């Protein structure tokens, strides 16, 4: 398993991320190998999840090449090249439904 994926998953889990999913999209997309999708209960929680992921990956020398959505915290995207982390508030996660869109990827049990 990819070190970024393992560390990001643990960082989300340690801050009580909701319904964390890891999807291997390497066979269906060239944009990344993995999507990690999680929810927070409110904007403060969504930001705390993103902050913890960045902190934990930063300790290992990994830095997001792009961060989007942090100010509104409805959907924060952290792009680590091979792994893209999506942290949603619960209503936006239901609306965008990335799990359905990327259903051809392989769900990874963590």
Radius of gyration over C-alpha positions, nearest whole angstrom:
12 Å
**Strand-pairing-aware structural class:** alpha+beta
Overall geometry: globular
Please state roughly what percent of the residues sit in beta strands, choosing from under 5%, 5-15%, 15-25%, 25-35%, 35-45% or over 45%. Answer: 25-35%
Describe the 3D structure.
It is a single chain. This protein has a 6-stranded mixed β-sheet. The protein has 4 helices and 6 strands, in the order αββαβββααβ. Helices cover about 35% and strands about 30% of the residues. α1 (about 5-15) packs across α2. The protein is globular, with a radius of gyration of 12 Å. It has about 110 residues and is of the alpha+beta class. A hairpin with a 2-residue loop joins β4 (about 75-80) and β5 (about 85-90). It has helices spanning about 5-15, 45-60, 90-95, 100; strands spanning about 20-25, 35-40, 65-70, 75-80, 85-90, 105-110.
What key attributes describe this structure?
single chain, 110 residues, alpha+beta, Beta Polymerase, domain 2, 6-stranded mixed β-sheet
SSE topology:
Blueprint: H1 3-14, E1 18-24, E2 34-40, H2 43-59, E3 66-68, E4 75-80, E5 83-89, H3 90-96, H4 98-101, E6 106-108
Helix pairs in contact: 1-2
Structure at a glance:
The protein contains 4 helices and 6 strands. It is of the alpha+beta class and 110 residues long. It is globular.
